[in-house]
Design brief:
Blueprint (H helix, E strand, L loop, with lengths): L8 H14 L11 E7 L9 E6 L6 E4 L7 E6 H10 L2 H9 L3 E5 L1 H9 L6 H12 L5
Parallel strand pairs: 1-4
Antiparallel strand pairs: 1-2, 2-3, 4-5
Helix pairs in contact: 2-3
């Protein structure tokens, strides 16, 4: 498997494929959430920014490019923090970024907390998925 920079077009294509391969094994989300995400400072993207969303309102969690028209909240985060949250699952780095003011939230904070509460990185299926994701994510 070829590794690609986090959030490059190639990485996003592999993440979509990963979602399709695992969607039948994933439990339904606990709480419906519509969350827009802005990732800044991406070194290999034109403009250095990516706008995406997480939507669990229809019974499965979809992470995709583009913003939702009616989101519960918008989170703006730098590239390194996004990688720590989505790939390496480094909660300490995410908490440090929050304390340093590198994570900005507009909207309903309870929805973001509900999304986080539904995650269990120690779950065997989650470990399998994140292991695959790390395999196709380049170190840099």
């Amino acid at each position: 498997m070829t590794a690609h920079p986090f959030l490059s077009d190639e990485w996003i294509a592999q993440a979509r494929d990963l979602r399709v391969r695992y969607e039948h094994r994933l439990p339904p989300p606990r709480t419906p959430v519509k969350l827009n995400i802005v990732v800044t400072g991406i070194p290999h993207r034109d403009g250095g920014e990516l706008r995406g969303h997480i939507d669990s309102s229809d019974g499965q969690t979809i992470i995709e490019e583009g913003h939702l028209a009616e989101a519960d909240a918008t989170v703006t985060v730098d590239y390194d923090t996004a990688k720590a949250a989505f790939v390496t699952q480094d909660q300490q780095a995410v908490m440090q970024a929050f304390l340093q003011g590198r994570i900005f939230l507009e909207g309903d904070a309870s929805k973001l907390l509900a999304l986080q509460a539904g995650q269990n990185p120690a779950d065997p299926l989650a470990m399998e998925i994140y292991g695959e994701m790390r395999a196709f994510t380049a170190d840099s």
